[in-house]
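User: Here's a chain of 126 residues. Predict its fold as tokens.
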Amino acid sequence: MSLYETLPIQARFSYDHTQPLEVRVEFFNDVGGAVTWVLSRDLLVTGLHRPSGDGDVRIWPPCQHHGGDGFWMFLQGRTDVALLEGRIAPLRAWIDETLRSVPFGTEGLSTDWDEAFAHVLAQGDR
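Assistant: Prediction complete.
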């Protein structure tokens, strides 16, 4: 693949209310392989309205002066980078569903803190 090659890619966004701060995005290639990225839900929500993110994940909405219905996502791995464009309306509708499931500010209420602390303490025994 060349540096500036453009190709279509399928992506599946998933959300688990037991992990309320994160969103998983699975990207599929044309030969059946997939790569999963775990992103901050807040990063996605902010990126629908203004540029969001630092470092290896950045998201920004369409330019207000030029219109368009696409959002942009920049991903930087250890050896590769990708600049992805997607339609903003389906992403916005999907994000709204996650916010109905777990509204902003209530993320900590759905966390089983006893289980989380037990997991952290068990890691210390290794």
